[in-house]
């Protein structure tokens, strides 16, 4: 998740749907929603990414968060089953998009498994961390582990806390974002102790995020290349820490498309190709 991002898939947000009642968003300005997403795409392109843009899907307001319906691997995509009822149709839509643009599919989860892509973090090509949460269950973790076993991938799972309960969203990537091979951004109060111990055992240190900035996506950071990141604007504390350590920070205005839907820049992207140059 920190190698050079070469190709990435995003979806244009819909302006048609139940943002508050079903999506649990704070109601966005739908004009700004589209403009923010367009500017985000332009930023990714300016940073050297090839961006595939999927069409919007009326009614599926969360579908702008393209990180969640699948896990991308070096061997193809794993399509997931989503526990949030209003998102259950998204993996099938994702399959259509992947087939259209020629991305191979490694497999897909079957009942009773469910999982969200936001609960996974690749530390390297052979190490996958998965959060056990209200959005990702034991069956989901085990099916993913079995799919990746032939490729020598080690899968480690970590229990996430209750926090605000099943109706809210708390992913592993709500509390952990790698930004280089030995650095990460972490919201410590909700990070599992075993996870922090695991990071330390791998020689990974981290920059801490405040509660205020966790709530405005300060701990959900998209890495374009080692120490080159995209951060939602409005998080000056973590921005200053990163810049002070020599990290190249690119800001995007995402108050509507990111913050009001509880999804940061990583949530908005489905990385398709990352490479070490």
TrEMBL record:
<dbReference type="GO" id="GO:0019546">
    <property type="term" value="P:L-arginine deiminase pathway"/>
</dbReference>
<dbReference type="InterPro" id="IPR003876">
    <property type="entry name" value="Arg_deiminase"/>
</dbReference>
<keyword id="KW-0378">Hydrolase</keyword>
<dbReference type="Pfam" id="PF02274">
    <property type="entry name" value="ADI"/>
</dbReference>
<dbReference type="GO" id="GO:0016990">
    <property type="term" value="F:arginine deiminase activity"/>
</dbReference>
<protein>
    <submittedName>
        <fullName>Unannotated protein</fullName>
    </submittedName>
</protein>
């Amino acid at each position: 998740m920190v190698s050079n991002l070469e190709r990435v898939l995003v979806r244009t947000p819909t302006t048609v749907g139940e943002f508050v009642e079903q999506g649990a968003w704070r109601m966005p300005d739908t004009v700004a929603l589209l403009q923010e997403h367009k500017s985000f795409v332009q930023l990714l392109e300016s940073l050297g990414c090839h961006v595939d843009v999927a069409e919007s899907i009326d009614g599926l307001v969360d579908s702008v968060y393209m990180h969640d319906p699948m896990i991308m691997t070096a061997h193809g995509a794993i399509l997931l089953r989503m526990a949030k009822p209003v998102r259950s149709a998204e993996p099938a839509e994702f399959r259509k998009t992947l087939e259209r643009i020629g991305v191979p599919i490694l497999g897909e989860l079957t009942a009773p498994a469910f999982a969200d892509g936001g609960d996974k973090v690749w530390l390297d090509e052979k190490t996958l961390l998965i959060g056990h949460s209200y959005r990702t269950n034991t069956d989901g973790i085990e099916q993913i582990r079995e799919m990746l076993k032939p490729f020598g991938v080690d899968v480690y799972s970590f229990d996430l806390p209750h926090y605000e309960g099943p109706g809210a969203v708390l992913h592993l990537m709500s509390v952990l974002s790698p930004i280089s091979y030995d650095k990460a951004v972490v919201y410590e109060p909700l990070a599992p102790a075993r996870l922090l111990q695991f990071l330390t055992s791998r020689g990974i240190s981290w920059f801490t995020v405040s509660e205020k900035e966790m709530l405005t996506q300060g701990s959900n950071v998209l890495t374009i290349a080692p120490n080159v990141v995209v951060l939602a604007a409005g998080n000056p504390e973590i921005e200053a820490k990163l810049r002070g350590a020599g990290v190249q920070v690119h800001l995007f205005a995402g108050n509507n498309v990111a913050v009001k839907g509880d999804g940061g820049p990583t949530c908005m992207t489905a990385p398709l190709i990352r490479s070490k140059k």
